Amino acid sequence: MTGYRELPAPPSLRSEVECGWRAGVPADATPVDGNVLPDGCMDLMWIDGHVVVAGPDTTAHPVHRSPGSLTHGLRLHPGAAPALLGVPATELRNLRVPLTELAPTAARRTAAAVDDGRDPLAALADLARRLRAEHGAPDPAVRAAARHIAAGRSVADTADTMGWTLRTLYRRAAAAFGYGPATLRRVLRFRVAVALLAAGRAPADVAAHAGYADQPHLSREVRDLAGVTVGTLRP
Q1: CATH number for the domain including 170?
Q2: What confidence tens digit (pLDDT) does each residue in 144-165 have?
Q3: Which of 78, 102, 135 is the C-terminal boundary of a domain?
Q4: Domain tally for the chain?
Q5: 83, 137, 160, 206: which one has the fewest Cβ atoms less than 10 Å from its Cβ?
Q6: 89/94 Cα distance (integer angstroms)
């Protein structure tokens, strides 16, 4: 396989999984260096014979792919991974952690399944289902809070809508997303902007549609969160 390709989420995991994906580099190609941009999500990845958990990012995370490499992943909805793993997202922020450090038995079982010929993406889906059975499904209230925040609702309004105190909102946001609601809003807004820029939309239009005050605001946020200019993210 060449490049990056997204695949539909397994039907039984749509509450937890946004999509599956595969990223590969041909054996006769040169190494590929790039950045994974913050999107509010966490991923379960099969890399070099191991399951790795990608924590929530607050800046661009550098990635190096060698010729002949193939990575498989499940992108989890914002807030879903900590519930499955039983680990607060704050402990994984800006990190890539082997699953053996978090759930060694589940990690070994997944590796054994792939060694026995199971497709790595299917093995990751089996892993997610086992983790859900062990730890429980993510709390729907967490996703509801994320939707309110992504829609631009204030922190106070979000807390009031959820029936939480501000302290509860901050605590639950940190555990589920790895950072507070204000940072979550920045990241989710940035994700919308990245998608629009990649689609070729004009920066001024992107700024207005994604909820930035103006185009300079968009430019500052792109530089802070991605470390590049707006033009770099356009085709």
Answers
A1: 1.10.10.60
A2: 999 999 998 999 999 999 999 9
A3: 135
A4: 2
A5: 137
A6: 10
